[in-house]
């Protein structure tokens, strides 16, 4: 299995823009790659943390007072810890996981795993911000959010090359 950090691209900038409209005490980005989004949101939160399976190759996030942990998704965090949880999961359909930076697995199992961890660690009053492609199992993601009393809302989308990407937010109504 390939173990390199995901290098930011147009999809990352779309998520970064959506994340920058939020603020609060705590923010986690699951699958933070090289940490570029952590830098962008560091002024809006008291505590910014990124998690990923591999160490980032760039260190800009340290200058921004962000934190980075080597972890599988959000496994090292307690339930209901963060005001905002964001992620840009691997979203390309695949029969297996050969490259954990891009392969979503069969039936979008990887984006669903990211979501389940996000739902676990976000506060009841918090927001999950996620970037998904048209290939992602959006209906299943919406159903999973609904089972936890979170509402999934499409915020914006963008067509890039051969794919349609969209930012979604999940939060509890009210």
In short:
A hairpin with a 2-residue loop joins strand 8 and strand 9 (about 165-170).
Report how far apart the termini are: 43 Å
Integer-rounded radius of gyration:
15 Å
* Structural class assignment: alpha/beta
Average of the residue pLDDT scores: 85
Kindly identify the CATH topology: Rossmann fold
Q: Strands of the largest sheet, in order across it? A: 3-2-1-4-7-9-8
Report the count of strand segments: 9
Count of individual helical segments: 5
* Assigned CATH architecture: 3-Layer(aba) Sandwich
The main β sheet shows up as: 7 strands, mixed
- Beta-strand portion reads 35-45%
The CATH superfamily name is Vaccinia Virus protein VP39
Question: Can you tell me about this structure?
Answer:
There is one protein chain. This protein has a single domain, classed as Rossmann fold, CATH 3.40.50. A hairpin with a 2-residue loop joins strand 8 and strand 9 (163-171). The termini are far apart. The strands form two sheets. It has a seven-stranded mixed sheet with strand order 3-2-1-4-7-9-8. Helix 4 runs parallel beside helix 5 (138-147). It is globular. Helices cover 25% and strands 35% of the residues. With 174 residues, it is α/β, with parallel strands linked by helices.
List keywords for this structure.
7-stranded mixed β-sheet; two-stranded parallel sheet; 174 residues; Rossmann fold; alpha/beta
How would the blueprint of this fold be written?
Blueprint: H1 10-19, E1 24-30, H2 36-41, E2 45-52, H3 60-63, E3 67-70, E4 82-87, E5 92-93, E6 103-105, H4 109-121, E7 122-133, H5 138-147, E8 151-160, E9 163-171
Parallel strand pairs: 1-2, 1-4, 2-3, 4-7, 5-6
Antiparallel strand pairs: 7-9, 8-9
